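Ribulose-phosphate 3-epimerase
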Amino acid sequence: MIKIAPSILSADFSNLEEQIQKIDKGGADLVHLDVMDGQFVPNITFGPPVIKNIRRVTDLPFDVHLMIDRPERYIKEFVDAGADIITVHQESTLHLHRTIQQIKSYGIKASVALNPSTPLETIKHVIDDLDMVLIMTVNPGFGGQSFIPQMKEKIKELRKWIDSKKLDIDIQVDGGIKLDNIKEVIDCGANVFVAGSAIFGTDNIIDTTKKFKSI
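Predicted structure tokens:
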């Protein structure tokens, strides 16, 4: 099943409730929440208090992407704020298996993200415990970047790997996804797509979300 997860990183925070309602009307499947700490990535966004406030304005599942150093320190706070899925980076925690189990202990979905230069083999021994793998198709930290074409082969390889093991795991792609390239990334085997400026940077957020869904 193809799912669209608009990233509010590109939304207008002065009208955030209205913008989230628009992606909901457009048929979005998830709200993607990019949490950055200025250490693991060169940018700072928001934390649990903001997510807790956003939780009040929508029933859409919250897809919380932790681009932070040592995320295991804050898992409970993000669960309490309303996260339905928590993604941690393989590169950000020393004990990845322990962090995955920590997430799952709260009864929510666990996901691991891989930066463009991080090989798939680094999650070989934890993939059976995952609900989703996030392939970064840009270097994390800023919105509006261009898709790195070499990541198509990585997505294809991951899809073959998951299918060969007969696992029920989503493949999410984050970075540079637009209406004119999403179809080719679907063909590579991904099924969950993060789009920020490609949705919130348009004149009609509802219609653009519907266009993504129609593909």
